[in-house]
Design a protein that fits this description.
Elements (H helix, E strand, L loop, with lengths): L2 H9 L21 E4 L2 E2 L9 E3 L2 E5 H7 L3 E5 L4 E5 L4 E5 L4 E4 L4 E3 L5 E3 L2 E5 L1 H5 L3 E5 L4 E5 L1 H13 L3 H8 L2 H6 L2 H9 L1 H5 L2 E4 L3 E5 L2 E10 L2 E9 L5 E8 L13 E8 L7 E8 L6 E7 L16 H10 L4 E5 L2 H4 L1 H5 L1 H4 L4 H17 L4 E11 L1 H14 L3 E5 L6 H14 L6 H18 L6 H6 L8 H8 L3 H6 L5 E6 L10 H8 L6 E6 L28 H16 L1
Length: about 575
């Protein structure tokens, strides 16, 4: 895969128009134009949407029906019922919540009104249902769009070659400065050589993250698939667009003979219980050493499934074959995505809730198991999990030893900056993206360097840095990985793939040696030819995320070395 693809479709932000300004107040006589799914809404005379103060009011029946809902007024309950094949919403007139499919409730800003025997609801009613809404105060034009139609429209403009229209109509001023029409065109057209002709966009999924709608779908091309992720603000403005290789199915494997697996619960009795899998040798005598596997970044399952890999499955089985019990579990943000990645949580969500607390609970679970030796519980953390391992240990994990798999003692934003610059440096000087994106990345770097000067409240309100919430990064750097690691006197094994382009063998591996130089129990192993997931790959697309899409397993030598190291500590 060309590195140009990785850059424009992963690093570039493609944005629509300006943001909301201060609310504009109008009388109730002002009428707003209205569209549904990019089509003008046709309504009977006298039934148009209107602006009441700073609230846009829309006739619920024609809008709901245009969106494909059956809309019914239940007189006995003074309620509105909106039904589709899959969803049902009930709104009691005069209330401030919408009941979804008889279960959850959605908060609603404003209340319905009756005008000329028609029920009007605030535009925010449809936003609460997960639809995309907008209002242009200068033209008095409002809109409601389903996430599927929005995504289809964006990719449709790209596929039709209407780059200038997309740029003129949908980009905001800042993104027009960063991404030219020619850069947009070259980014989309660069897909053709590797993935072929665009075919269709599959059904989308959505979630709310820090006030924005994140839409994900698989885009099918004639030679392969790509995952498309777009991010939309609260005025239907596109704030992000990226394409990444869609994952092929991971290598299917059966549990090896001589092993057994049990389903357990990490954090049982807490507000966030997590499904876990404990892998054990089927026949053993005496108490066993054990390992907690701690995930990298992102919302991942107990196998740490990423693209076409299942690294935690491979490690768990390989270690259990060496007489070591292994606990792996679903990440909290994987099990409770809306709770931990939604609007309200995003500003205060940190690695403590995402990773640290659950790893400590997992260690406690192993220490209580009578089949296992409580004095020989180890942590093996991959990527972000490796970075956080010293903190998890210090905050209560109290492990017998730590295995750091492709971790780093540096700040997270430093690594993200290097990852982006690595892609930029690989571009031809003639590529217009090179200068434009370098400028954008340098701007993000300036924001990152300013994090330490912000108060907690300022960080919670600050814009994202490299697409990561500012407070998340600030809180993480307040628990300095290098400083915590310097205090370690227990056994530590640092493992690094030489071909890792996410954590750099030439930078991070030597830094670990420097940080741990006073720890005589620290050991270091580097593996030629292995990538970030400790998979050996040298085919097409090597050095880009394309290689992660080729199904494979963790190199057996890595797992053998892990097991030998743990058993050596145990024998002592």
């Amino acid at each position: 895969m060309r590195k140009g693809l990785s850059l424009i479709m992963i690093c570039s932000l493609l944005v629509l128009g300006g943001l909301w300004g201060s609310p504009v107040v109008h009388s109730a006589e002002d009428i707003a134009g209205f569209s549904v799914n990019f089509e003008n809404l046709k309504v009977p005379a006298g039934v148009s949407p209107f602006v009441d103060g700073s609230v846009i009011m829309v006739p619920v029946r024609p809008v709901g029906e245009a969106l494909g809902y059956e809309v019914t007024y239940i007189k006995e309950q003074n309620s509105l019922l909106m039904k589709s094949d899959e969803l049902e919403y009930v709104y009691r007139l005069g209330g401030s919540t919408v009941v979804t499919s008889g279960k959850g409730q959605l908060a609603l800003e404003g209340k319905a009104v009756l005008k000329d025997n028609r029920i009007y609801v605030p535009l925010s009613f449809f936003g609460a249902l997960g639809l995309i809404t907008s209002f242009d105060a200068s033209s008095f034009e409002a809109a409601v769009i389903t996430p599927q139609k929005y995504a289809d429209y964006v990719v449709g403009l790209l596929n039709a070659g209407q780059y200038e229209e997309l740029w003129q109509d949908l980009f905001n001023t800042e993104l027009k400065r960063l991404v030219s029409i020619s850069a947009l065109q070259s980014g989309w057209e660069s897909l053709d050589g590797t993935y072929g002709v665009y075919v269709q966009l599959n059904p989308v999924t959505t979630m709310q993250v820090k006030g924005q709608t994140v839409i994900q779908a698989t885009a099918e091309f004639s030679k392969g698939n790509l995952s498309m992720i777009i991010t939309v603000d609260n005025n239907a403005r596109l704030t992000g667009l990226r394409f990444t290789p869609a994952a092929a199915p991971a290598v299917e494997r059966e549990l090896p003979e001589g092993l057994t697996e049990e389903t357990v619960v990490v954090g049982e009795g807490t507000a966030h219980p997590l499904k876990g899998i404990l892998t054990l040798p089927e026949h053993s005598s005496g108490r066993l050493p054990s390992v907690v596997l701690v995930h990298g970044s992102g919302s991942t399952d107990h196998d740490e499934t990423a693209f076409a890999y299942k690294p935690f499955r491979d490690i768990a089985w390989g270690l259990a074959q060496q007489g070591i019990a292994v606990l792996r579990y679903d990440k909290r943000s994987y099990t409770y995505p809306k709770e931990f990645m939604g609007d309200e949580a995003a500003a205060s969500f940190t690695v403590k809730e995402e990773t640290v607390d659950d790893a400590i609970l997992a260690a406690g679970l192993l220490k209580l198991d009578k089949r296992l030796d409580p004095g020989h519980v180890y942590l093996a953390g991959h990527s972000l999990g490796g970075m956080l391992a010293p903190r998890i240990d210090a905050d209560g994990g109290d492990f017998a030893g730590l295995i750091l798999l492709a971790g780093s003692p540096r700040k997270l934003w430093e690594i993200v900056y290097d990852q982006n610059m690595n892609v930029i440096d690989g571009l031809d000087d003639s590529n217009p993206l090179k200068v434009q994106t370098r400028s954008a990345i340098d701007g993000e770097l300036m924001k990152a360097k300013a994090l330490s000067s912000l108060s907690t409240e300022q960080a919670k309100q600050a814009p994202a840095v490299f697409g990561i919430p500012a407070f998340y990064l600030q809180e993480m750097q307040q628990h300095d990985t290098a400083e915590l690691a310097r205090r370690l006197a227990k056994p530590v094994l640092v493992m690094q793939g030489a071909d890792d382009f996410q954590i750099f063998a030439g930078t991070d591996f030597p830094l670990w040696k420097e940080v741990l130089k006073n720890n005589p129990a620290a050991e270091f192993k580097q593996y030629p030819g292995l990538n970030h997931f400790f998979v050996n790959y040298d085919g097409a697309g090597a050095g880009t995320t394309a290689e992660y899409n080729v199904p494979d397993i963790v190199d057996p030598q890595v797992i053998t070395d892990m097991g030998a190291w743990i058993n050596a500590q145990y024998s002592h």
